[in-house]
Amino acid sequence: MGNGRWTPWDRLMRTLHLYTGLFLAPWMMVYALSAFCLNHGPWFTERLHLAPRWEVAREMVFTPDAGFPQVPEEQAKAILKHLGLEGPHNIIGDPTAGQLIIFRLCAAGHYRITWQRQRSRLLVERQRPFSFYSFVNAMHFQHGYTQPYLAHLTWAIIVDAIAISTVIWVISGIYLWARRPRERLLGAVCLVGGMLLFVGLAILLCL
Questions:
Q1: Are residue 119 and residue 59 in the same domain, yes or no?
Q2: Is the alpha carbon torsion for 141, 46, 128, 33 positive or negative?
Q3: Distance of CA 30 to the CA centre of its chain
Q4: Does the pLDDT at position 173 exceed 80?
Q5: pLDDT tens for residues 131-168?
Q6: Residue-number span of the structural domain to which 102 is assigned
Q7: 9 and 24: one domain?
Q8: Which of 6, 59, 185, 193 qualifies as a FRET site for 70, CA 20 to 30 Å off?
Q9: Residue 34 and residue 62: Cα distance in Å, rounded?
Q10: How far from chain centre, in Å, is Cα 112?
Q11: In this structure, are 69 and 19 located in the same domain?
Q12: Long-range pairs of 108-111 with CB within 8 A, sequence gap ≥ 24
């Protein structure tokens, strides 16, 4: 690395490249491992029998009282509270007069709660088996700001940080390479080769 006017930039790029990588290392490992698992899904699900399936956790009679809310989202919250499963959730599909299905998010195994109104029946199912494969996949797809819970909001902020840091890593990596004259030829081959391969595959995948 040279001195002079480029020295502050050299230090900044090295600092950004190093410390963002160290701080975000656990998340990057999760995304790397889960991407590998997703890419080799049949090996995990068929050979190791780790394909997630729904198992009945409990089944009960549920007859709401007169104070039970009428709005589906509020009904979902009331049902989860009744079950002791309050937390991040989504309503699956469009609620009907006869049925409401709630998807309760949990990295240790998601829940599916079905309320059959006419039968006054609550069916609670959970994804099994729990494994490292299911855990990293659940963490991989954790995203967004739709759930008003601290852990989920913090994770969403970190996902944004990862996206920004990845751009910084690319820019700082190219900068650090460009500042090493002896390595410019090999770096250029890697950079151009990667770009050409990406463009070629992108075109083929669009056909």
A1: yes
A2: negative
A3: 9
A4: yes
A5: 999 999 999 999 899 999 999 999 999 999 999 999 98
A6: 53-128
A7: yes
A8: 59
A9: 38
A10: 19
A11: no
A12: 108/135, 109/134, 110/138, 111/57, 111/85
